[in-house]
Amino acid sequence: MEILLVFGTRNQTLRCANFLRAAGYAASVADTPLKIYGSCTLSVRCGREAFSYFCEHVHAFSSFAGAYTADGDRYARIF
Description:
Elements: E1 3-7, H1 10-22, E2 27-31, E3 42-46, H2 48-56, E4 64-71, E5 74-77
Antiparallel strand pairs: 1-3, 1-4, 2-3, 4-5
């Protein structure tokens, strides 16, 4: 399952992607879909394992706005 991590600042988006990669998880920076509000227009794409790891360290990212899963053109907020 692909998960989008959405942040309010580009700096923290890039920091999160680097944080997950440094921990050995696959993570990439992608454009945030227009249907998701409250973002800096960039988000981090990752898998379930990376998301679990991120949840343990979410306190380090003050501009974290939410996590979403994609089902076609619909997005569901999961965190």
